[in-house]
Structure formats: C-alpha cells, structure tokens
Design brief:
The protein has one domain. The protein contains seven helices and two strands, in the order αβααααααβ. α4 runs antiparallel to α5. By secondary structure, the protein is mainly α.
Length: 183
C-alpha cells in the first residue's frame, strides 16, 4: 500500500468523524495527562537516584512504572509493541516539549514558547490519532522515514500542496474531532 493511499484512508476516516458527533474523551484525556506525570516521576526518580546514589529512588521506579503500565492499558487498546512504545514516547515527548515551552515563556521568549507549545500539541494529538486507529504506524513510518545520504541534511518536513505539514494536518484534524471540555 502506498503512502498516498494510507493518507487518503486517514483523511476519509477524519471526514467521517467530523460529520458525526465529536468524541468525548475527557476522562481519557485527563488520564493521559496523569500518565504523562507518572512518566515524569519515573524520570525524576532515575535522576534522583543517580545524583544521590540512593538506590531507594531506583526501587520506587518499578512501583510507579507498574501503575503507569496499568493506566496506559485503559487508553491503549492495541498492545502491539510498536503502538504501545510509540504511544508512551509520544506522551513523554509532548509533556517535555510543553515544559520547555513553559520555561521559554517564563524567560520572555514567546515566539519560541508558542512554537514549542504547537509541537507539543501536535505530538499529543498524534498520540490520540494512533490510539483511535486514525493513524497507523505504517503511515507514520512512510511519512517520516529519513532519506539516506552522505551529506548533512536538514530535517525533512512533509508538506502537502497547500504547504501544510503532515503533523500539522493530523493535529488539526484530531483536534477538531476531540472534545476535552465535556464533563
């Protein structure tokens, strides 16, 4: 299957969802933010163990990890290794990029902060696209595979005829479908 056909199928799914009711994922979205924070706790325990030399921090990582894995199962329905692992890293990356954006905003670097916030939001929406079955891992690999070359290359950003990036289109469409403000 070609990348063009995968993208067309993706777009068809989004259009069907846009015509229907918005998805109410408020509990799932709240849980995903909680999972992001559990990932951060695992990271902090790791660094605290390394800085202090106290192995008790390392021992706590396993307890937090067990909780994170259990809660991720509530959101990630496809337990295949790639979807599971990609999902975890999308949440972690989204959270970290947002935190760097917040620090940039605090320093008065608003343009940089807003760019980082957009990237964080795009990653977060990609997480949901993947876990709602809107985006398939094969679509991602075909859209983001680096070209091999001996020369130093700039990062590849796939754009459509209107100049919209692949990530931006995914984020925009999923953002329209999701409604986090329902109670």
């Amino acid at each position: 299957m070609t990348a063009d056909l995968d993208v067309k199928q993706f777009m068809d799914k989004i259009k069907k969802m846009e015509k229907g009711e918005k998805l109410d994922l408020s509990s799932g979205e709240d849980l995903s933010i909680g999972i992001m924070n559990l990932i951060a706790i695992e990271e902090h325990l790791f660094f605290s163990g390394g800085k202090t030399g106290d192995v008790k921090f390392y021992e706590l990582i396993n307890e937090v990890r067990k909780m994170r894995v259990q809660l991720l199962r509530d959101i990630i329905k496809e337990y295949g290794g790639e979807v599971w692992c990609i999902s975890k890293h999308l949440l972690a990356a989204s959270m970290r990029v947002m935190e760097v954006g917040t620090k940039a905003q605090t320093k008065g670097e608003t343009e940089k902060a807003y760019d980082l916030f957009k990237k964080s939001y795009d990653l977060y929406n990609l997480f949901w696209g993947l876990n709602l079955g809107i985006v398939k891992p094969t679509t991602l690999s075909q859209q983001t595979a680096p070209h091999k070359s001996d020369k130093k290359e700039e990062p590849i950003e796939y754009k459509d005829k209107q100049g919209n990036s692949f990530m931006g289109k995914i984020s925009s469409m999923i953002g329209k479908v999701l409604d986090c403000c329902r109670e």
